[in-house]
């Protein structure tokens, strides 16, 4: 790519949200990237955001944005159901494309987007930023060095924060499974992608999904109940199977946030153990601690020298995307992750072990 990457951003709002806290801190100080233009759901919203973030150009539609000759890369950071519609004009214009995870509402959308991107020969990235976590990178370094010996098993346990007892109007769409933005796709996708990145894909999966709650309470900004909404997105998921490496893996994700364990990830090898502990169950945007034991020694904390946090992980992904031969998840990788999730759903629905294609 060129030494300077000119971004057209879709979904940057003055009302806060993920884009403003995770993308903008990196992009605004970057010597590589410049936000040349933005587009929002209305021209008024786009103008307000442009003024707030000192961006010169703004547009009412993604079609107008992608026709800007100064824009070579389009970033989409909006609700999952809108991903396909908003990024398609960029692909048709031959622009490089960066989209949040999940890439689409389902495997079909992810495959259609990836096929279009390949036909236009554009560079793509999906923001599965847990791969850039200092803790995940250190875990991979230790395992690749052989210090743990042969990996025997791994276990992940996480609380998904949303999909608990309450929610608000801004994210109540997460309760509807048809929107493709749910506990299994978002939290499960990020968490299991980190595991597969380090240890390899599942050879096969056996899964159970469940709704412990049938409804979720919607509250206003003051915490007052507005109504109850149907909760069709699952709030419990367990997955187990053997990885292609031969190690056994199990994953349990539950909706809500708890006083007890919210994130625990263990890896056991013939010569040692690793353990990740976190106060929140969102590996991709938190700062968990890493503990290790080698050759029977006590568990000791390994402190990463690099900064952690949501904007740090996203920023590192941008850095890798800008490099020739950088290490970042492409849309082809996203399709594999969507296939894994589809296999989880199919296993849960049929009660049978499922496999999925592990390369695009």
TrEMBL record:
The record ties this protein, via InterPro entries, to: Gal80p-like_C, Gfo/Idh/MocA-like_OxRdtase_N, Gfo/Idh/MocA_oxidoreduct, NAD(P)-bd_dom_sf
Write out the transmembrane intervals. Answer: none
Q: What is this protein called?
A: Oxidoreductase
Q: Native species of this protein? A: Didymodactylos carnosus
Q: Name one GO molecular function term.
A: nucleotide binding
Pfam families named in the record: Gal80p_C-like, GFO_IDH_MocA
- The UniProt record lists the Gal80p-like C-terminal domain at 136-278
Looking up SUPFAM superfamilies in the UniProt record yields:
Glyceraldehyde-3-phosphate dehydrogenase-like, C-terminal domain, NAD(P)-binding Rossmann-fold domains
Q: For the Gfo/Idh/MocA-like oxidoreductase N-terminal domain, which residue ranges apply?
A: 5-126
